[in-house]
């Protein structure tokens, strides 16, 4: 799988392959520089590769080379972790770093943007899941439908912002990786800060309200609108898990949805 790109881009293998549910990655050296070769057949992953190139190292890892199926990225070597920070008493600091990084990704560029996936298509699995499961998902779907019907000024979105997708690139700072290549209202990109299933404190009492204030201030977002995006994204995440038969994994985003919906009701 990697051989043709290793030859084409004159790479040296520098580690063992990493296999995810939709991508194959290989640590390599390119012109003596640590890099990561990523190959995927997934539509969103390929859109993300083109988007990484479009960002040109501003807020995201640098792209050394790319084609229709592969991207060669600068490799993160820093030891700091936003997920570890959030779990070790520096949750607010991690959130502010995420917001700062996302703002760089959302900033306009002069050159034409690549072909991206509209948010309405990204949310296509939520309505069928709401029809099947009802309850919280039905409420999240109604909110999502209203948001998508009034999508504000669309911007280029990362699509999968969470603590483990913004890495420490040492002298280059905190940079994003693994975008999905979406386009839509910018509030969507901040929702996963509140929903990340890898962060065990997402449903801790009071956390969402505290982080909501930080994100709304840092990103210049209206808190109610941000809460609506949190509910919508939580519903979509739960729908994906339920669609895969992963009922247990759906509990984390459903918990986030309950908290967001409760906050909306109080507001």
Quaternary structure classification: single chain
Instruction: Tally the structural domains.
Output: 2
CATH fold name of the largest domain: Aminoglycoside 3'-phosphotransferase, Chain: A, domain 2
Q: What is the overall shape?
A: globular
What is the distance, rounded to the nearest whole angstrom, between the alpha carbons of the first and last residues? 52 Å
Number of helices: 10
| Fraction in beta strands | 15-25%
Structural class: alpha+beta
CATH architecture of the largest domain: Alpha-Beta Complex
Low-confidence stretches: none
Q: For the residues shown, what is the average pLDDT?
A: 94
Order of SSEs:
HEEEEHEEHHEHHHEEEEHHH
CATH domain class name of the largest domain: Alpha Beta
Helical content (DSSP H or I, runs of 4+): 40-55%
* CATH superfamily descriptor of the largest domain: Aminoglycoside phosphotransferase (APH), C-terminal lobe
Would you report the number of β strands?
11
CA-atom Rg in angstroms: 18 Å
Characterize the biggest β-sheet: 6 strands, antiparallel
Organism: Rhizobium tibeticum
InterPro entries: Kinase-like_dom_sf (IPR011009), NH2Glyco/OHUrea_AB-resist_kin (IPR006748)
Keywords: Kinase, Transferase
Protein name: Aminoglycoside/hydroxyurea antibiotic resistance kinase
Main traits of this protein?
267 residues, alpha+beta, Phosphorylase Kinase, domain 1, Aminoglycoside 3'-phosphotransferase, Chain: A, domain 2, six-stranded antiparallel beta sheet, three-stranded mixed beta sheet, Aminoglycoside/hydroxyurea antibiotic resistance kinase, phosphotransferase activity, alcohol group as acceptor, kinase activity, transferase
């Amino acid at each position: 799988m990697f051989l043709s790109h290793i030859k084409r881009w004159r790479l040296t293998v520098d580690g063992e392959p990493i296999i995810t549910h939709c991508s194959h990655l290989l640590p390599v050296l390119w012109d003596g520089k640590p890099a990561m070769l990523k190959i995927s057949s997934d539509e969103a992953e390929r859109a993300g590769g083109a988007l990484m190139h479009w960002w040109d190292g501003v807020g995201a890892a640098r792209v050394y080379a790319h084609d229709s199926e592969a991207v060669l990225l600068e490799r993160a070597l820093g030891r700091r972790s936003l997920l570890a920070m959030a779990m070790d008493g520096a949750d607010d600091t991690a959130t502010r770093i995420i917001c700062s990084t996302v703002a760089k990704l959302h900033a306009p560029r002069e050159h034409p943007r690549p072909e991206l996936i509209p948010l309405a298509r990204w949310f296509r699995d939520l309505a069928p899941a709401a029809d099947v499961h009802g309850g919280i998902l039905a409420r999240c779907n109604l909110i999502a439908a209203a948001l998508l019907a009034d999508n504000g000024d669309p911007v280029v979105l990362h699509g999968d912002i969470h603590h483990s997708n913004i890495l420490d690139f040492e002298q280059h700072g905190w940079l994003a990786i693994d975008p999905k290549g979406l386009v839509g209202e910018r509030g969507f990109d901040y929702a996963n800060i509140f929903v990340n299933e890898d962060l065990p404190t997402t449903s801790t009492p009071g956390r969402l309200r505290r982080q909501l204030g930080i994100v709304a201030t840092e990103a210049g977002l209206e808190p109610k609108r941000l809460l609506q995006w949190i509910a919508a994204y939580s519903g979509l995440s739960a729908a994906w898990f339920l669609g895969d038969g992963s009922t247990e994994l759906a509990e984390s985003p459903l918990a986030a949805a309950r908290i967001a919906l409760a906050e909306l009701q109080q507001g």
